[in-house]
UniProtKB/TrEMBL annotation:
Pfam families: Acyl-CoA_dh_1, Acyl-CoA_dh_N. Its cofactor is FAD. This is Acyl-CoA dehydrogenase. The keyword Lipid metabolism does not apply. Residues 6-118 form the Acyl-CoA dehydrogenase/oxidase N-terminal domain. It comes from Arthrobacter saudimassiliensis. InterPro entries: Acyl-CoA_Oxase/DH_mid-dom_sf, AcylCo_DH-like_C, AcylCo_DH/oxidase_C, AcylCoA_DH/ox_N, AcylCoA_DH/ox_N_sf, AcylCoA_DH/oxidase_NM_dom_sf. Keywords: FAD, Flavoprotein, Oxidoreductase. GO terms for molecular function: acyl-CoA dehydrogenase activity; flavin adenine dinucleotide binding. It comes from the Bacteria. Signal peptide: none annotated. Belongs to the acyl-CoA dehydrogenase family. Residues 232-358 form the Acyl-CoA dehydrogenase/oxidase C-terminal domain.
Length: 370
């Protein structure tokens, strides 16, 4: 396993940094998060049309670029560093991963091109009313009559209030299925206030909403979709951790106390060195999981669980140190340290907390009973 980036991957990262440096300044990120959509439409257009960020993991036959989930992870890491809100996680990760598992080729051909070009914003209604992303069901039920209809409530739906295409996980009489909502206007959205203002989530209520089945036996598909989601969030967390480290090192070189920069004090050097260890080990875990996702390796479930647990803990530690080493300014609204702190706690719970994935990993490795 070689994590040396190829020339194409390095060029992708370089382009992303250039675009985000221009379009995702601190003020721009805050304006985007406060906007009606929750993201900067111009930035999303540049990312989707000029860089092809939404198309990377989608095969060429469906209008995608034909790369892998590893390249999507590089994009998410860059977005995590900039803290820029975009619908990439909801649409190009959850939405695309769900559609790629559709049983019917016609469904993939119909839905994926719009997601790939960024003109369609998709999302996946999955978490139940307890905020759990289960692979054996959800808070929605699907009933077949003259056609399939969905009833119930899905919570914590990323970009759920503004999505053009809503996919849904629903319990069926035979188990659990994956559905496409036919009438998104019949779904009742309610925005859910989030700790991280750069992540928009909503509660969606379904009352006999017409739907089309994409996969009726979706247990195995949902397990893989969950793993891909864990990899994506881990990459996002790595970028944010790097941002916290960089801003802390910069501040420590500027802040003067007792006639010298505080970064020259040995105790603070040690703490920043520990932050670096957290960032680099998290990157290793996230990239290893992204490599497994991109190559279809059999060890994806273990690597995804390990990455989400490790990266969640690492970002929480880095964010805490970022606040501590900045002092009082870090808890003000004007400073970006508070955005790093909020991102750490929000993504730490997204798709399950670290302790849940440590338990899953222990079970997969045979260390505890299944």
């Amino acid at each position: 396993m070689d994590f040396s980036l190829t020339e194409e991957q390095n060029e992708l990262v370089k382009m992303l940094r250039a675009v985000l440096d221009r379009h995702a300044t601190s003020a721009a990120v805050r304006d985007a998060a406060a906007s009606e959509t929750g993201y900067d439409a111009d930035l999303w257009r540049v990312l989707a049309e000029e860089i092809g960020a939404a198309s990377l993991a989608i095969p060429e036959e469906y209008g995608g670029a034909g790369f892998t989930w590893f390249e999507t992870g590089l994009v998410l890491e860059a977005l995590g560093y900039s803290l820029a809100p975009t619908p990439l996680l909801a649409s190009a990760v959850l939405g695309a991963a769900a559609v790629l598992h559709a049983d019917d080729e016609a469904d993939r051909e119909r839905l994926l091109p719009g997601i790939a070009e960024g003109s369609t914003i998709a999302t996946l209604a999955w978490a139940d009313e307890q905020g759990r992303w289960r692979t054996d069901g959800s808070g929605l039920t699907a009933v077949e009559g003259s056609g399939w209809t969905l009833d119930g409530t899905a919570t914590l739906v990323l970009d759920g209030a503004g999505a053009d295409t809503i996919l849904a996980v629903a319990s069926t009489p035979a188990g659990v299925g994956l559905f496409e909502v036919l009438d998104t206007g019949a779904v009742e959205p309610a925005e859910t206030p989030a700790m991280d203002t750069t992540l928009r989530v909503a509660t969606l209520t379904f009352r006999k909403v017409a739907a089309r089945p994409l996969v009726l036996d979706a247990r195995a598909a949902l397990e893989e979709i969950r793993d891909i989601a864990l990899v994506a969030v881990s990459c996002l967390q790595v970028g944010t951790a790097q941002r916290g480290l960089d801003m802390t090192v910069e501040y420590a070189g500027q802040r003067v106390q007792f006639g010298r920069p505080i970064g020259s004090f040995q105790a603070l050097k040690h703490r920043m060195a520990d932050m670096l260890v957290q960032v680099e080990t998290a990157r290793t875990a996230a990239w290893a999981a992204a490599w497994s996702a991109g190559t279809g390796a059999a060890d994806l479930p273990e690597r995804a669980a390990m990455a989400k647990a490790w990266c969640s803990d690492a970002l929480e530690k880095v964010a805490s140190e970022t606040v501590q080493l900045h002092g009082g300014i870090a808890i003000t609204w004007e400073h970006d340290a508070q955005l790093v702190f909020k991102r750490a706690h929000a993504t730490g719970e997204l798709f399950g907390p670290a302790r849940e994935h440590r338990r899953r990993l222990q079970s997969m490795l045979g260390l505890v009973p299944a």
